[in-house]
Amino acid sequence: MQLDQDTGLSLTIAQIVQRLKGSSLHSQLERQARISLHRPEIKLESLKEDIKEFLKTSAPAEHIKEPLSYMRKSQGSWEKRILKSLNSMCTELSIPLARKRPANEQKELLNKWNEMGTDEPDLSLFRPVYAPKDFLEVLMNLRNPNYDNGDQPSFRNHLGLIQVPLKIKDIPELKDYFSELDLNAGQLGIDDSTQVPPGWLKCTFFAVLAEQDSAAAQQYVRQGCPTALRAELWALILNISNQSEDILYYEQLKSNVVQHDLLVDSLIYKDVKLTASNDDYYFVFEDYLYQVLLCFSRDTSVLEHFTYNSATPPKSYIRGKLGMEEYAVFYPPNVNFKIFILSVAPLCFLYHEPSKLYQIFREMYVRFFFRLHSISSHPSGIVSLCLLFETLLQTHLPQLFYHLGEIGAQPLRIAFKWMVRAFSGYLATDQLLLLWDRVLGYNSLEILAVLAAAVFAFRAVNLMEVTSLAAAEAVLADLSTLKVMPLLQIFLFATVT
Amino acid sequence: MAGKVKWVTDIEKSVLINNFEKRGWIQVSENEDWNFYWMSVQTIRNVFSVETGYRLSDDQIVNHFPNHYELTRKDLMVKNIKRYRKEMEKEGSPVAEKDENGKYLYLDFVPVTFMLPADYNLFVEEFRKNPSSTWIMKPCGKAQGKGIFLINKLSQIKKWSRDSKTSSFVSQSSKEAYVISLYINNPLLIGGKKFDLRLYVLVSTYRPLRCYMYKLGFCRFCTVKYTPSTSELDNMFVHLTNVAIQKHGDDYNHIHGGKWTVSNLRLYLESTRGKEVTNKLFDEIHWIIVQSLKPVMNNDKHCFECYGYDIIIDDKLKPWLIEVNASPSLTSSTANDRILKYNLINDTLNIAVPNGDIPDCKWNKSPPKEALGNYEILYDEEMAQSDASDRDLRSRSGQSIGLKGNRSRDSGKSVLTTWK
Q1: Which chain A residue's Cα is nearest to B275?
Q2: Does residue A249 sit within a domain?
Q3: What backbone phi and psi angles, to 5 degrees, belong to B36?
Q4: Segment among A186-190, A298-302, A424-428 with least mean pLDDT
Q5: Gap between the Cα atoms of B292 and B218, Å rounded
Q6: Can you point out the beta strands (E) in A108-167?
Q7: What is the pLDDT of residues B316-372, one digit of tens each?
Q8: Is residue A358 part of a domain?
Q9: Which of A281, A283, A348 comes nearest B253 by C-beta?
Q10: Taking CA atoms, what residue in A is nearest to B189?
Q11: Domain range holding A108?
């Protein structure tokens, strides 16, 4: 047993080292290690023990996969449900999940690679695998079997739709956590609209870029990125350099798309047509979206994130090659492509080379976005975000929370779609990018829940007057005029608690 | 104040009428006394024609300048700009400075253009210098992309000229005149598609020149991927951005209508190309608009005009003035478009007819900043002059005498950025 654990551990370490090698983080670590060697308090003899001691006393390492078994179970049955729905669609339409394209079809696809949007196949028979509200339904039914909140619901109970006990931050903790968003700190997204742009911030950014200092970049973008430097800063934070091998890798994925036809392609196609193609901000980039999303569904390196995602990848095999790993194509978990589409589209404003755009999106996905559609107890997971949102509203604006609940317009029913899409498609693009600056800066999606609550607070007066879910939705239908940073600041720092 | 504005219009568009009614103005017929007439370009021609000899009184105002066609007809715009360049050169003005190849440094913003049939020989000469170039033919008197085609061989022109001669003698009037312009075959593409800019510019007076730029301009995208390939020269969905053309394409989207806001363009360019080049591009766009107005000055105090500027940006981020429209379409293609045009008219009226009061053409037409709505001052001659004399004083008392070249450009350009 002990032996097993040890080999498993050293294997993990070897993998981590392998992944680190060649990244800028690796050289930074090495440099820091060399410097530390000369410090008197560091003794080589006891280094191993000292580190062990440090790790023991500090917070436990992030849970690798999901630690709570009831979460794992729910995620499992949710996956089964989706897969069943996919499979039954295949049977119904008698199309395979995956097939090899005949040569002439391959050639045709290659020719129109840059203008796939002009194709108009009949996709009326394809239906979305699930809608956000189906997913919300699942989250609402989550229960912790070990937790008994008693038969008598007391006044202090959580009255929201999410009924699982998870550790979430309260207002003082949020204030502390998001301290860089304080009213006294310079913010891009507020101060740039006044006469003098915060020059100090800009100088810092140039220095950070010159140094290629990823960690510092992450710290500074908490106060927002200047528009012209955002693309570079995000790439630095995400450790994306777009080397020639990355471009080659992208080209390989592209040839995989050309060779094999997947059922998801049609779903992606249909969802792009239904969302981005009709969007005032994103329609321009329609063709880029296919180029990214089709490749993404063939990218086996995405599978690595399942080591820390509570979800498991549904896989499919090329006909006749069942079970042979090299012929596996994985299905993105929870195939609601509208969510994917809306997380790629804003990035099109920053990157115009498809290979770079692709890498940035993939990294954003495996760091952040997967958490928005798998069931987990992670603080950035969608369950925690829902709970955080409802708790903030319930404590901050109890009257509003109660009123909306009474008329059957539970706030989460409206805010869920915003959070699950990280506000993409709802905010104006410049505002969305300012919000995502903070996601990258804090390495957390919690800001989404705070913003959702802030939007409700901002519209509270109007919301108090509505008497139906439809009317509440109408009040909150258009978020495109909102300014993100003032809303967040007012909610977090200017409200008396 | 003394009574309500009496208005007339010969354009039955709800965005206009709703705006008039909102102000409590009274509709009258054109034969009655009126204060405000929103008229089509056909009507303005009659009103100002020598035969009618109609003289506007002090309390009457119309939405066109009598000589608007000097700017808004494709052939005359080019003619006027050419003339203006020559005049500036003669005066030795710094704006007419040329580079070593004989190209104007600051006034080269219209693609090389000739009138046909008048300048046919000049065109042939130019064409032979660069036989692989593509040219665009446009009828002078038509709009919305009608009658436009592309050519890349001289034989096509010859055929066109034969065809139009044989068709009928009656149509040999000035209406059949064409302009032929060098086609910008390296447009800036976004998402692989070509687009042009539609910007609204309001001139409230020419003497002194005072003009405003509407902040909510937009890009109009082609629905089909751009290709400079000559095999697609006949495919107007690739080349022409006019909504009147594009809406007949299979891929036309009725929700956004292929329109993208200028603020989106700015965000995209700043993010992908950087702040400096983006600012330079927009400064240059402002510059060419102001320069295009200078040759067509008019003294009339009874007029204002909202022009629709069409600008194409090439892949080196140089803006080109394509044409100016006198009566930008008030038809709304999408819901957003409808809101935009309603607001455009609203803001235009707030500047042209302050407070909705009966117009008085002696008023100097300088509204307070709060009344501008989505307009921002593009150029104000009076302010420019007082600023210039300010600067003159400063530089005389100061030390900056050198760097003549730089300063001369500045004197024209800085005014654009000073009062934004």
Answers
A1: A228
A2: yes
A3: -135, 125
A4: A186-190
A5: 20
A6: none
A7: 999 999 999 887 778 877 888 888 899 999 999 999 998 888 888 777 667 888 889
A8: yes
A9: A283
A10: A284
A11: 70-131+240-366
State ipTM: 0.81
Contacts of B261 in chain A (CB under 8 A): 280
> Which amino acid belongs to residue A2?
Q
The structure's pTM equals 0.83
Q: Distance between CA A311 and CA B143 in Å, rounded?
A: 58
Residues of chain A in Cβ contact (below 8 Å) with chain B = 114-115, 117-118, 120, 226-228, 230-231, 277-281, 283-288, 348-352, 429-430, 433
Whether A450 is covered by a domain: the verdict is no
Interchain contact, A283 vs B274, CB within 8 Å: no
Interval B147-204: pLDDT, tens: 888 888 888 888 877 776 655 444 444 447 889 999 998 999 998 888 999 999 999 9
Per-residue CA distances from A358 to A308, A425, B105 (Å): 21, 19, 41
Helix, strand, coil shares of chain A, percent, nearest 5, are: 65, 0, 35
Residue A314 pLDDT class (50, 70, 90 cuts): low
Q: How far apart are CA B287 and CA B294, in angstroms?
A: 11
Which of the two residues, A405 and A308, has the higher pLDDT score?
A: A405
Residue of chain A with shortest Cα separation from B249: A118
A142, part of any domain: no
B residues 298-357 near A, CB within 8 Å?
336
Tell the residue number behind the tokens 């779903």, with chain if given.
A267
Taking contacts as CB-CB distances below 8 angstroms, the residues of chain A near B268 are 349
Q: Is B267 on the interface with A (CB under 8 A)?
A: yes
Residue type, A276: A
Q: How far apart are CA B148 and CA B178, in angstroms?
A: 9
The residue assigned the tokens 């038509």 is B142
CA nearest B110: which of B184, B199, B220, B176?
B184
Number of structural domains chain A divides into = 1
Chain A to chain B Cβ contacts (< 8 Å): 68
